[in-house]
Amino acid sequence: MPPALEIENLRKHFGGVSAVDGVSLALESGRIYGLIGPNGSGKTTLFNCITGVERRDAGRVAFNGERIDGLKPWVIAQKGIGRTFQVIRVFPELSALENLMVVTRGSRAAARARALELLTFVRLEGLRDEYAGNLSYGQQKLVEFVRVLMRDPSLILLDEPAAGVNRTLLNDLLDAVRRLRDRGKTILLVEHDMKVVMGLCETVFVLDHGEKIAEGPPGVIQTDERVIEAYFGR
Ligand SMILES: Nc1ncnc2c1ncn2[C@@H]1O[C@H](COP(=O)(O)OP(=O)(O)O)[C@@H](O)[C@H]1O
Ligand SMILES: [Mg+2]
Asked: How far is ligand 2, taken at its centre, from the CA of residue 36, in Å?
């Protein structure tokens, strides 16, 4: 089986900044991966290039063995890649349930059933009729997270899902991510909290100035000289 996602020598620059500078990595299906690196190291840009939101300058991205670089974002989404954004994008004046139902999938009844199932998945079913704008920040992030699941993607990219989320909701989120993995989904998440990364990820990729400087189990990564230098050395 080809990797769920394979990136080869991906490059993206903005003016004089090499946001992603020749990154290669591969994700096997049914695993949870971490993507870490200091602010501005290219994590979000990498997500944007994978999902077609940004046009890459060079390199290759293959999803289940099929090239997807150069495709439009909605085509890539339809193929089975879902992602959340670093900045929350819920509709405050729609209910939690409606926020999910905007991602239509077959009939309205089917979308509603799926949306309810997903809210239950993260224990938010009791808040289904609440305006999203009235939910706590953490609850909004959970709504956004499960909205990504409406289309049942096989690869899920999460951009700082835990940031600003309280302990209880964080545990619900982490538990949901593990259950997705147990159902065969592949997950790549950007996360700053090393405790979250250690508890969740089998393999971590480290970016610095757009380059992948390390890759391995989180325990090993934490003691890597280049990684320590990237975080604390300047
Ligand atoms: N749309 C953009 N226009 C110009 N520069 C950008 C843009 N997006 C990102 N950058 C720059 O690319 C680099 C990587 O940014 P980003 O991918 O957001 O990093 P991270 O998510 O790791 O914090 C930074 O120097 C950032 O300023
Ligand atoms: Mg970012």
From this structure: 10
- Whose CA is closest to atom 16 on ligand 1? 42
For ligand 1, atom 12, which residue shows the shortest CA distance? 19
Judge whether 172 lies within some domain: no
Question: DSSP label at 90?
Answer: -
Domain span at residue 213?
1-80+153-166+181-234
217: domain CATH number is 3.40.50.300
Number of structural domains (the chain) is 2
Is 129 found in the same domain as 58?
no
Whether 176 maps to a domain, the answer reads no
Beta-strand ranges (E) seen in the chain are 5-14, 17-27, 32-36, 58-63, 66-67, 81-83, 155-159, 186-190, 203-208, 211-216
Reading the chain (234 residues) residue by residue, the pLDDT tens digits are 899 999 999 999 999 999 999 999 999 999 999 999 999 999 999 999 999 999 999 999 999 999 999 999 999 999 999 999 888 889 999 999 999 998 876 788 999 999 999 999 999 999 999 999 999 999 999 999 999 999 999 999 999 988 888 888 999 999 999 999 999 999 999 998 888 998 999 999 999 999 999 999 999 998 999 998 888 765
Q: What is the whole-number distance in angstroms between the Cα of residue 105 and the centre of ligand 1?
A: 33
CA dihedral 85, 39, 56, 51 (to 10 degrees): -20
- From ligand 1's centre to the CA of 52, what distance in Å? 15
Pocket of ligand 1 (CB under 6 A): 14, 17, 19, 37, 39-45
